[in-house]
C-alpha cells in the first residue's frame, strides 16, 4: 500500500513564552498513514492533535524530524504549493472558512487562486458540490446555511483542489448532531467512493466507529494506535487519558464487572445489542 503521509521522529516546539520553558507540542512521532485510509485521531485538549495536523500540509514545519506528503519533504519550499494542493484542511469554525457571498464562488476560490482555467473550474465546482450533496445550494448565500451545510461547503472548497487527502480538525465540534452526521457521511463517501485519504480529528467517539485506524494522542505522542475495536477495548487506559469508550463498549464493560463475559469489541449499537442478547439467551429481531 502506498503511503500518503509520513512523519519521522517529528518534534515540534512552539516558541517559549516569557517565564515559561518551551515544551514539545509534538514529541518524536513516527507515523505512516496509508493512501486511501480513514484515520481518526482522538486525544484530550492540548495533546498535540492540531499541531500534528498542521504539519500535514506544511502550515507548520518540524522543529526536528521530517514530514513527507506522498514522499515530498514539507521543508522543501519549492514543493509547498504542491503539498498544499494535495492535502486540504477543514477547521472547526465554519464561519471562518467562507470567503464569498455565493456558495459556488466560495467553492471556486481555491482553484481560481491556483490559476485553473474557467471551464475546468466550473467542472470542479459542480463535481465538488455534488460530492458533498450541496448542488442545489450553488447559488445560495453561505451565511444563511446551517453549520453542517457550511462545513460541507468548506469541504467542497477543498475537494475542488482535487486533493488526495483531507484533514479535518474538529470540523464537527461546533455542529449539532444532525450537522455532524451530514458532514461525517459526506467525508465517508469521499473516502469510500473516491479513495481520498481522510484524517479526522474529533472529540466524538462514535465518529471513530468505522475508521480503518484510530490514533490516540497524549502529551504530544501517539499513545494508542489500532483499529477502533482494538483501541476502544482498552477502556481503563482510555480513562487514564481522560477519554471514554463509546457507550456500547462502556455498557458491555459494566456488565462484565457484574460477572458477564461479553466481548468488548462490539462497538456499534447493533453489535452491542446482539452480544447482550446472545449472553442472556435471547434472539435479535432482524
Ligand atoms: N500557538 C501556540 N503557541 C504556544 N503554544 C501552543 C500554541 N498552540 C498550541 N500550543 C500548545 O501546544 C500543545 C498542543 O496543542 P494542540 O496541538 O493545539 O493540541 P490539541 O489540538 O490536541 O488540543 C498544548 O500544550 C498547547 O498549549
Ligand atoms: Mg486542536
Structure in words:
There is one protein chain. This protein has a single domain, classed as Rossmann fold (3-Layer(aba) Sandwich), CATH 3.40.50.300. Helices cover 36% and strands 21% of the residues. It contains ten helices and ten strands. It has helices at 49-55, 80-86, 103-114, 118-131, 147-159, 177-194, 228-232, 235-240, 247-257, 269-279, and strands at 3-13, 24-34, 38-42, 64-69, 72-73, 87-90, 165-169, 197-201, 213-218, 221-226. The strands form two sheets. The protein has a six-stranded mixed β-sheet with strand order 6-7-8-3-9-10, with helices on both faces. Strands 2-1-4-5 form a four-stranded antiparallel β-sheet, covered by helices on one side. The model has no long low-confidence stretch (mean pLDDT 92). Adenosine-5'-diphosphate binds at residues 14, 25, 43, 45-51.
Helix content: 25-40%
Global morphology: globular
Report the CATH architecture: 3-Layer(aba) Sandwich
End-to-end separation: 37 Å
pLDDT below 50 for ≥5 consecutive residues: which ranges? Answer: none
The rounded Rg comes to 20 Å
Question: Can you count the helices?
Answer: 10
List descriptors.
10 strands; alpha/beta; binds magnesium ion; 10 helices; Rossmann fold; globular; 6-stranded mixed β-sheet; binds adenosine-5'-diphosphate; 286 residues; single chain; 4-stranded antiparallel β-sheet
